[in-house]
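User: two proteins, same treatment. go.

Assistant:
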Amino acid sequence: MKCLDQRDPEPGAMRRALELAAAIGAPGPAIYPNPRVGCVLLAPDGSMIAEGYHRGPGTPHAEVDALAKAGEAARGATAVVTLEPCNHTGRTGPCSQALIEAGVTRVVYAQADPNPVAAGGAATLKQAGIEVEQGLYAAESRELNRVWTRAAELQRPYVTWKFATTLDGRSAAADGTSRWVSSRAARLDTHKLRALSDTMLVGTNTVEVDDPALTVRDLEDRPVGVQPLRVVMGERDLPEDRRIFDAQAPSLHLRTRDPHEALAALWERERRHVFLEGGPTLAAAFLDAGLVDEIVVYVAPFLLGAGRSAVADLGITTISDAFRPRVRSVDVLSPAAPGEEPNVRLILEPHSILEPQKGEQ
């Protein structure tokens, strides 16, 4: 166990709790719908008693994990935890009650719980006479669970829209061919990003025409162990032999064309991060509905001059009304196969889909 600064042990304990929370690995289908949380228990003299972290759905929460290791030594301790202790019974009991029963006298947490179902733990602890402090490394805790936090605030899955395009904005040639617009390096990068979500989403036309597998695959093109849910939305029937319905990963057909209805249904199924890879019509529907939270674009250095656009008509007729997302990062992806040119990856965040940013006058 790491030694802490005995003069002010709580900041060091919180940094350690953040390390523990990240130890489970990147977010994805094995972790959602839960956040990553770490906890450190301190004795009255500032020394570390025990530490714990949450390992995924159905496992003890970070506080309970640490309390179990501490035993009777938890009485009179300070609990330093990255997220406000939960106040509800789900797969496990409320952490606020576990801390009270263990005899903890002080709780320091970083981030308030944005989930209205689980929030209220701080108030319960205070009512029990426990000293509570919030805000230590709050920004770091929020960043650790950036997608989960935003989904909890929105009460719907966070949506990442990914597409690949040529320099002139084409996602397919005039004859419909689109394999491959992006480079192998971009496709490998896409699989890394897919693995961070718990849901893959496309429309019925994409399934009917392109027949994608929508699985997360490794460098040898083999499906990884835990897969996101593959979802197709749309009202038309689909052939049963489409790859999205095979046994490589779970699948779901949502019989709706309404993005709000689709996300509500996925939220009810405890889905927290949707990776949207549908065609231009589905992309435009989500953009029009204001339901895109992040955009990942792979730009390949060639021109087609004609063909399918990455997004359908958004009703924008003048440059001043253009949809102008904020650029979060720009990266050049080095070639991963002989003869390929570098691709550029942009990650963007919409300012507001419902109120497009005006251009310079």
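Protein 2:
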Amino acid sequence: MKKIILWCAAILAATLSPASQAQILVGQTAGFTGAVAAGVKETTDGAALYFNSVNAKGGVGGQKIELISLDDKFDVKLAVDNARKLIEEKNVVAMFLTRGTPHTEAIIPLLDKHGVPLIGPSTGAMVLHQPVKKHVFNVRATYQREAEKVIAHLASFGITRIALVYPDDSFGADGLAGAQKGMATAKLTPVAMEKFDRTNPDFSEIAPKIYQANAQAVIMVASGQAVAKGVKALRAAGSAAQIATLSNNASSGFAKSLGDNARGVIVTQVFPSERSINYSMVKEAQDLLKASSKMPGELSPAMLEGFAAAKVLVENLRRAGPKPSRETIQTALEGMRKFDLGGLEVNFSPEDHTGLDFADLSIIGTDGKFKR
């Protein structure tokens, strides 16, 4: 009898051992509260939609994916603290879907020190693309590409008097560089260039200047709450200029934050329309969302970005072998060629960490939804 008890205990111990309960830990630091909260929630929901589907089928190699998300309140210092905790204490095998250009830049030394790959940062900063950052793998086009696209669109309609508004950080400088490149291609010169404090956006002096410059359009390189404040100030100053902003604001929450000023705002996009079922990735996301009891509502551009990044991460976890590690995931990513995301092809190499170069435009309609 004693032998039987010991044998059962051994079986129970094996069943509850760390190996059998192993999970693939992935880390995320992003502003779940603060200026970009709406977009962060939607991109993370999109990623969770795919992770939940994979986990429901047994995970990757029998291991469930666990995304550990920490709120950095869109604060650079806190983002670094969070990343250190995730990498050094939680021992995540990869970082994922960080938010913010200066925030992502600030954690690169930690990625390099510990050999941790970062997949799908939710920023299109050129500094994360060129020169190539060894451990950063982008799943979206650059802000500069987006800014060029919107300038070309405005110029095609005969709009020539364009103002540029941007924050005093690396994100602002990056978007500004793209806009200026687009302006040069269209042989235009900005009628106004106004910089604001990222930590305390104040448009009380900027808005009248743009109105006085008689701008026909204003490109706002800024995060959600700042754009909403800026548009409100512009309208109060009397400006009826067309407003355009970048894909970091491609969320339903952003459209709602604009209130009555939402209609007609142009938002650049880095993925196909969330209603374009010609792309199998979009159809897959739509179907999973409909079947989910945890995520009511419709698919948004921000959700689609998170969904796409999650697909890339999961594919590389599979390619990394039965026990994915930081090193094997890095190797898998650098060898990813012609991966069909679902109508879009992702390619990485040691010399190129830009997975996609898709850029499009949408306009917020009267119903608060993005129209292509």
